[in-house]
Amino acid sequence: MAEILLSEAEKAFIHHGDDLRCDGRTRLDYRPIILETGLVSNASGSSRLRLANSDVLVGVKVELASPLSEKPLEGRLEFFVDCSANATPEFEGRGGEDLANEICRFLQMSYMSGDTINLSELSVLAGQQCWVLYVDILILECGGNLYDTVSLAVKSALYTTQIPSIKVATMDGDQPELELSEDPYDTKRLNTQNVPCLVTLMKIGNHYLVDPTPEEECCSSSGVVVAVSGSKKITAVRKIGSGSLHPESLVSMLKTASEVGAVVNKILMKKLLEEETAGKTQKVGFMR
Amino acid sequence: MPVDSRRLQGPESAFSYTLLEKKDANAEESILSADLQKMLIDSNHVRKDKRKPTDARPLFLRTGIISQAKGSAYIEQGNTKLVCGVYGPREVQKKSDFRLNGQLFCEFKFAPFSCQKRRSHQQDNEELVLSGLLREALEAAVCLHHFPKAQVEVNIMVIENDGSPLAAALTCASLALASASIPMYDLVIGAAVRQLPKLLLLDPTKDEEWQPKLNHDENNSNLTVGFMPSMQQICAYVHEGVSNPEELEQMLKIVTEYCLKVQPVVQLCLKETVEKMLASEGENNDAE
């Protein structure tokens, strides 16, 4: 992150603060989140999520392709994370590639287990055509806690993704004909109820924090990122940072993460539903 | 991703012949883990390779396998075979990085013929993430402040992948680092465990390992842990698949117990290495 300067007093406070953090939050509180969907007109689904100073824009494009030979009855999700050089000076050139790759891979892993998403809904013609959802994540600004921000933005974008309805017409010899519905509003949406949210917990001193700020991330040497699905199951866990954790701390962090994840999922779905039912209001976009 | 133009790539339409195999009715499409369980364990509670669920595969360790490297190690865990070479401490390649602590560079690579599906010659995303995980784990164990402005390179090459490559890599890398006389706080021992609904399999083979598949019912996952036995600290933790915190606690306990049992084996290997070095030095002195 851009040069973080911390005095000894600030470091001491972050280490020993008794359930009170520098910005007044408790250890399990998130910073304010601003979410808006449907910003990008050329994408089938999009969302922009701002978690305090972390800003992420996600665009989902749906395309037809042939399914993987090992999984002929399923469509697929392809993630791509792009750390813009504007986000933080460290991302200049190829600096952000490692982090982008890690986020991408962890997202892929957390979506690929359990009942998170039903990919067989994306199949058009078994073994020949399926929908591929290209989820492109653009990190515009980095203010700590990228994993959580990205996962919430992706979930929101997928929630609003409209997949056109395609009918398979008569098989003309070997070539099936695909018919796109004439009504542009005849679309279907994926069930994203169980799609996972990532929760980052950083270990500082003897306790752990949810949603760390860049200053708190500096003071911490290790943490875990936990993917919690909408059905309250843990679908992926990864320890991050160059420090080490005691097994007991790790176990209690996992328990806390799964509780926090369940709450985050519930609130996010509620807000997305509210935005949907509110109807066509004027888009705020990047003006605010 | 930069394209490797120097090597001949196979034609685009090449695919593995195993896709043409006739599958049993229950094999791949088995959604219920109960069926999966029946495949892996027979009625006597014995696995396909005659092990009990809590038995690990026999371990073989040898150091000094690469003569040109500062330190090297070879590990065989069942059929999983890995080589690790350690070079350094030497001057940091990118002079622009001035750091008061030493740096660790890890490269994790699968040989193209090591897995069932051919791997590319260049590191793909999975290998890059595994390299990052390995580096974070080893950074917790190595005394980086002992070699400021210098770097140590750890290169892992998987010769044959029959399950749990990351676990074997962690053990092999720490053995290689120790034999290269790099100061460390503790050895890192890696272990993996597969979780099925009512069963835990320690040290899974490739067939027993969890594969990303959706629509599984409860509790189906893979956990790889890097543990420092003397310090009782976890330095690597990767969990993929569906689980809940209570089950994760169980899996962690089994894995840490196994790591404690393996520690004396690794220490014995190091002891033999030192004895051999002293013996050969003694011979050189006699010859002079």
TrEMBL record, chain A:
<dbReference type="InterPro" id="IPR027408">
    <property type="entry name" value="PNPase/RNase_PH_dom_sf"/>
</dbReference>
<dbReference type="GO" id="GO:0016075">
    <property type="term" value="P:rRNA catabolic process"/>
</dbReference>
<dbReference type="InterPro" id="IPR015847">
    <property type="entry name" value="ExoRNase_PH_dom2"/>
</dbReference>
<feature type="domain" description="Exoribonuclease phosphorolytic">
    <location>
        <begin position="30"/>
        <end position="164"/>
    </location>
</feature>
<dbReference type="InterPro" id="IPR050590">
    <property type="entry name" value="Exosome_comp_Rrp42_subfam"/>
</dbReference>
<keyword id="KW-0963">Cytoplasm</keyword>
<dbReference type="GO" id="GO:0034475">
    <property type="term" value="P:U4 snRNA 3'-end processing"/>
</dbReference>
<feature type="domain" description="Exoribonuclease phosphorolytic">
    <location>
        <begin position="194"/>
        <end position="259"/>
    </location>
</feature>
<comment type="similarity">
    <text>Belongs to the RNase PH family.</text>
</comment>
<dbReference type="GO" id="GO:0035925">
    <property type="term" value="F:mRNA 3'-UTR AU-rich region binding"/>
</dbReference>
<dbReference type="InterPro" id="IPR036345">
    <property type="entry name" value="ExoRNase_PH_dom2_sf"/>
</dbReference>
<dbReference type="Pfam" id="PF01138">
    <property type="entry name" value="RNase_PH"/>
</dbReference>
<dbReference type="GO" id="GO:0071035">
    <property type="term" value="P:nuclear polyadenylation-dependent rRNA catabolic process"/>
</dbReference>
<dbReference type="GO" id="GO:0034473">
    <property type="term" value="P:U1 snRNA 3'-end processing"/>
</dbReference>
<dbReference type="GO" id="GO:0005730">
    <property type="term" value="C:nucleolus"/>
</dbReference>
<dbReference type="GO" id="GO:0071038">
    <property type="term" value="P:TRAMP-dependent tRNA surveillance pathway"/>
</dbReference>
<protein>
    <recommendedName>
        <fullName>Ribosomal RNA-processing protein 42</fullName>
    </recommendedName>
</protein>
<keyword id="KW-0271">Exosome</keyword>
<dbReference type="GO" id="GO:0034476">
    <property type="term" value="P:U5 snRNA 3'-end processing"/>
</dbReference>
<dbReference type="GO" id="GO:0000176">
    <property type="term" value="C:nuclear exosome (RNase complex)"/>
</dbReference>
<dbReference type="GO" id="GO:0071028">
    <property type="term" value="P:nuclear mRNA surveillance"/>
</dbReference>
<dbReference type="InterPro" id="IPR001247">
    <property type="entry name" value="ExoRNase_PH_dom1"/>
</dbReference>
UniProtKB/TrEMBL annotation, chain B:
<dbReference type="InterPro" id="IPR050080">
    <property type="entry name" value="RNase_PH"/>
</dbReference>
<dbReference type="Pfam" id="PF01138">
    <property type="entry name" value="RNase_PH"/>
</dbReference>
<dbReference type="GO" id="GO:0005730">
    <property type="term" value="C:nucleolus"/>
</dbReference>
<dbReference type="InterPro" id="IPR036345">
    <property type="entry name" value="ExoRNase_PH_dom2_sf"/>
</dbReference>
<comment type="similarity">
    <text>Belongs to the RNase PH family.</text>
</comment>
<keyword id="KW-0963">Cytoplasm</keyword>
<dbReference type="InterPro" id="IPR020568">
    <property type="entry name" value="Ribosomal_Su5_D2-typ_SF"/>
</dbReference>
<dbReference type="GO" id="GO:0071028">
    <property type="term" value="P:nuclear mRNA surveillance"/>
</dbReference>
<dbReference type="GO" id="GO:0071051">
    <property type="term" value="P:poly(A)-dependent snoRNA 3'-end processing"/>
</dbReference>
<keyword id="KW-0539">Nucleus</keyword>
<dbReference type="GO" id="GO:0016075">
    <property type="term" value="P:rRNA catabolic process"/>
</dbReference>
<comment type="subunit">
    <text>Component of the RNA exosome complex.</text>
</comment>
<keyword id="KW-0694">RNA-binding</keyword>
<keyword id="KW-0698">rRNA processing</keyword>
<dbReference type="GO" id="GO:0006364">
    <property type="term" value="P:rRNA processing"/>
</dbReference>
<keyword id="KW-0271">Exosome</keyword>
<dbReference type="InterPro" id="IPR027408">
    <property type="entry name" value="PNPase/RNase_PH_dom_sf"/>
</dbReference>
<dbReference type="InterPro" id="IPR001247">
    <property type="entry name" value="ExoRNase_PH_dom1"/>
</dbReference>
<protein>
    <recommendedName>
        <fullName>Exosome complex component MTR3</fullName>
    </recommendedName>
</protein>
<comment type="function">
    <text>Non-catalytic component of the RNA exosome complex which has 3'-&gt;5' exoribonuclease activity and participates in a multitude of cellular RNA processing and degradation events.</text>
</comment>
<dbReference type="GO" id="GO:0000176">
    <property type="term" value="C:nuclear exosome (RNase complex)"/>
</dbReference>
<feature type="domain" description="Exoribonuclease phosphorolytic">
    <location>
        <begin position="56"/>
        <end position="183"/>
    </location>
</feature>
